[in-house]
Predict the 3D structure of the following.
Amino acid sequence: MFVPHSDLDREVMLKAIGAKRLEDLFTDVPKHLRFPKLDLPPAQTEMEVLATLNEMAMSNLSVRDAICFLGGGAYHHYIPAAVDAIIQRGEFLTAYTPYQPEVSQGTLQAIFEYQSMIAALTGMDVSNASHYDGATAAAEAVVMAYHNFRGKRCTAVVSQALHPQYRQVIRTYTQGYPGFNVIGDENTAGDPLAEPESLLPLITSDTAIVMVQYPDYFGRIYDYTKIGEAAHAAGALFCVAVNPIALGLLKPPSDFGADIVVGEGQPLGIPLSFGGPYLGILATRKEYVRKLAGRLVGETIDSEGKRAYVLTLTAREQHIRREKATSNICTNQGLVALASTVYMSLLGRQGLRQVAELCYHKAHHAADRIAQIPGFSVCSGAPFFHEFIVCCPKPVEEINDYLLNYNILGGYDLGQDYPGLENHMLVAVTELISAEDIDAFCEALEEAVND
Amino acid sequence: MNTPSDRKYTQSDEWVKLEGDIATVGVSDYAQDALSDVVFFEAVVSVGDTVQAKTQIATLESVKAAADVNAPLSGEVIEINEDLASSPELVNSDPYGKAWMLKLKVSNPAEYDALMDAAAYEAYCAGRSH
Amino acid sequence: MTEPTLYELSSQGRPGFRFPQPDVPLTPLPEGFLRKDLNFPEVAEVDVIRHFTRLSRLNYSIDQGIYPLGSCTMKYNPRINEAAARLPGFAHLHPLQPVETVQGALELMYELQSWLAEIAGFAAVSLQPAAGAHGELTGILIMRAYHQSRGDSARTRVLIPDSAHGTNPATSAMSGFQVVNVPTDAAGNIDLAVLRTLCDATTAGIMITNPNTLGLFDQNLLDAIALVHQAGGLVYGDGANLNALLGVARPGDLGIDVMHFNLHKTFSTPHGGGGPGSGPVGVAKHLVDFLPGPIVEIVEEGDEDMPPLFGLVQPKKSIGRVKTFFGHFGMFVRAYTYISMHGPEGLRAVAENAVLNANYLLARLRSAYKVPYDRTCMHEFVLEGRWEDAPEVIALDISKRLMDYGVHPPTNYFPLIVHDALMIEPTETESLQSLDAFADVLLKVADEAHQSPQLLKDAPHNTPIRRVDEVKAARDLVLCCWVPEAESN
């Protein structure tokens, strides 16, 4: 309980108000519905609550106590201790959205630096102050393209190797746009692992946006120059969804002509936290800056000419535009964006390259080893970053059950999202996986098949 | 407030100057003052488009407000002021001159007669609280 | 002193964070895909810590003092929340782990779903939406899906009171609805006479914030809800102001069909300088099947020996996913902690004391500020920040002057139906001393507005920076630490 009043305080206050009892302040609430009895557990003290929570937490298998080969859009990376030290500072933790710039320069400058580093990483001119997560950033990119063409182009062409949940969220977001279609991922060709060029015939004068993932959902690295050119030739926008750690090593999507870059920023120093809060990356070229959803921080000066930062281009947003705004978002992922800013600044160019290379080498070593296990094969068919597909001799779920005996969290069962990829496991390897972990994984896989 | 008498005005604060069948369109001094410092102008129609009176042709933004600019008359867009996108502050400094927004070839000149003249518009503005 | 940017602190080649050397054989890197350069700052850890520590000191925060932003519910954020969310068994779970390995997390989500449903009187809750506005979008898409499932495609309009947050109309438009404004009557309630004329077979629903943004419990609420229901529409409740209703009234009992919660307001999860929020959505029985999935259910009942098995289930006619995975789990842990520590009586005490604090402040300020809708308020109230006998001063000046006295200003210019609004929400966690100190400052500033208005016009004087040039920021857009190449050429 965090109400600081004594009974005496309350008496003084009620007297000043001119009320006899607290209840008298609630006479506007319909009497028959006033003060319902809530069926909730009785209040506990901090000590008791923490004990309960600890017990619940202990019943979970933390990736810290396991060897984790799960990826699929969320990755177990090392987080330098300095990151949490900064985001626990009350001045960042307990501040509101920086509407009053004179007393929010800390938050504003940190966001400005976030925008700068995301722009550098993606090769775009402008990043917003962040979005909810990768999927919602992808959906906002589609909405942005729809409005960019004033509703005249009604198709989004998305790769089937774009994260399945991103595609689901795009479909949810576009329900309200009459006649809008999301195509390209229906598995019509029957080959979920088809090359990206299979999208080319779908790009037409009705295409508002073309979206691919880099590295793609299966970890593969493709050159998207041709797709970008085709999108532009048709007058459409080209959007690339990225993994920011991979961009420490790989050339930015601007090299493929991307107009919008989206992505999941979780790998940049954000704990897995059972799926959130994460960080939506949303960046674009400067000609589209006014179509960009979400908060933006700009540099300016104060009345004495000192450099200062402020939320800018706010007339695009819902509190001014109301029903004419193209997005209703009115937050960003503030503290999570700050964590990623601290992470990126700690690592710098060299550190980010180093972690990306570690992931790359370890993933390739793991893939080489797994390919040698009888019954298993690695079927990526293209260069890959830190995630790859393993074709298994039996259902992935059975294998993963077996791996749990060794506290190994096996890869993701692709059959859940892709008919045709039953018995296919998506394996992710980060810098936290050691050579011994890979040995243990391979031994357990071998046993699992013979089990 | 400045209200030139060589043109007519709408209730949504656009001015229109008709020369032959060519109409030049912008927003009034009253409108620019209410918006305060304009930071953004964008035409939402293109040359060659046909527009109906009272439908949106452009957007204006200041740091605290956004406003639609509507077509005072129906017609075909024949020219858009390209300077305004890079210098939106012209809307504040010269609303009746350099801040013209677009030119229309009007399809129904009779619509012009229904608009307010300068005196009527001034009276209309005086009747509104700011 | 202006704090340099990270880029200005950077020095080429300065060593940063180091990772171990690879313990596996190296594989050739993918030629043709390699990045040539990356414009990141190069700083040492000590530079990073000092930079962000200095930046933090330029911020105002709840930890420093009262943060009376109306409709934002800036209450104290208990530190136990942070400790709980950082327990390794919560903070380090992968969202795609087999459900058997995350039963504790699912149990926490299941209980939070049921508790939120109980607190607000709903049949079911989805925790997935990421923030309040995201919850609104979810709720309005549910409204849309409900009408469509009944073949009722004529319902194209959403009614929104003129006192609503801007997110309400923006959300409705995003969901493909036409927005119709409903005026407020002289007492600060929904204008029933007008509402009656607006409800018809095209009404998809109404979005109601209650208590409304004037801080008033709408005295016409039950009648307004009945009108919309009679017309076949649904009622969306904006849960932004739920803090006033905890244990006081359940929105579901009042007739609201669907509502979002703001865990970052009502349930004390930190605002973090603008996020992450968390915006779970609760629905009445007839809308349960439309919730975004997955939600947590008991998939195998337990018995004396075995606990129940929790699993993830997709509702039958779900609008679909609104984000990846299950929502902001870290925020769920914090809200769960907060509710556990309060229990039913504690939650009611939160609302009662929030309302007490607001009414006390209102009583202290009434003599110096005009109260446009003056009756017993709920958790917040709205003053006019202008005086006829001090014509130069506007609400913004008052706000800026408050900063000179070391307190955060209230919400300005909202709701739109009050001229120069100052919207004040003290929350229940401010003590009598804190409220008195804040009231004293507001009274002093009212006095200054009349005696020496220039002091307000020039404020703030004592903050890290003075008033900023927002026009320059918008006209000469500088959105990152360097000028993009195309412009520097």
Observations:
- Chain C has one domain: 59-463.
- The mean pLDDT of chain C is 95.
